[in-house]
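By way of example, we now present a protein record of this kind:
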Amino acid sequence: MKKLFLRCILLIGVAAGSLAHAQLRIETSGVGATQIPIAIAGFADESIVPQQVSGIIKADLERSGYFKIIDTGNAISETAPVNYGEWKSRGADALVVGSVQRLADGRFDVRYKLLDTIKSASLSSIGLATSPNRVRVAAHKIADDIYEKLLGVRGAFSTRIAYVTKSGRDYRVEIADADGADMQVVLTSKEPIISPAWSPDGTKVAYVSFESKKPVVYVQDLVTGKRAVVANYKGSNSAPAWSPDGTKLALALSRDGLTQVYVVNADGGGLRRLTNTDGIDTEPQFSPDGQSIYFTSDRSGGPQIYRMNASGGSAQRVTFRGSYNISPRISPDGKTLAYISRRDGRFQLYALDLTSDQEMRLSDTAKDESPSFSPNGKYIMYATESGRRGTLAVVSVDGRVKHTLTTQAGDIREPTWGPFMK
């Protein structure tokens, strides 16, 4: 059992197929409990930018599952007069209009307005000056604003994701927009890479690389590309997870025998051991307030999820349903625990309400791995398998909305959803 447990925890995602550099393709199914009918007009003069702003906004809102898109059939500037009654009669509760203009310095001025057709009033307006290669970001930010104004929750369309792929003999850490576009390669290696984790400020990624023929934890700066070794002790160095303030990393190390939970400063100094058991303690995750650490342990016989104080000490078991629960992840508000549970031979994504103790299965696949919450807490991204290929999937926390991100060939593994950027 312990060999199976360690293999699942440490090498998950290492065996991957080939992957061509390709845009991730999105397929969405399901809708939210309620859908807001919204008309999104083409932006005036948006043909001058490399990518259609209104199309990106539509795709974002459709993917969320909480909006019913009403096609306007034409472009409408944010300065044009609006007949609210006409749009209300067409079933739209809200209307999005906008324009794009070229600035003298080569940038584009992207402007938009969100209108409430029920109250005949403006809900929001934004103007963004953006470079040609950041037009998608501007569109995502507009979609974020629409999501927040109409749903009361901050949108996460302009955030980024990281994941691991394999092309031929090369393993890669890649980052991309939340919709899979604008992919960039962070690291390429001939040896496996696992467990990428974003820093809270979104400027760094920690990961485990086997390039030294053993698992070693690195932190890489995404701006400069420079990286540093954080943990390279005897045995296995794995499962890095950032503290909410970005000053520390929780790790799983086997330097003193069995794998146990440690914490280290982000620069690799100040190593401290937090658990001391005769079992395997691994996959640590800080709670959002930094006061607790959730982790996986087989101290009860099979792997289950426990919680302890961030400074160590006694631990309390959190999961009791199912005999095999791993990969704990905590929602940004600290109220929901996501994890992978093996039941009836299937590894599936579950969510546990930590207040009510109500559990919900969120996936219907059989080989799920590596859950990661969106920074607004409304969605969970995870790795799964389709047609013997690794893919990424996203599900809303209520299980109603699902979409997959796939490529034409190969595997994608180990997703991690980045934070809100300032």
Q: What stands out?
A: The chain has two domains: 2-24+157-417, 34-151. Helices lie at 2-11, 53-64, 84-89, 135-151. The domain at 34-151 is CATH 3.40.50.10070 (Rossmann fold).
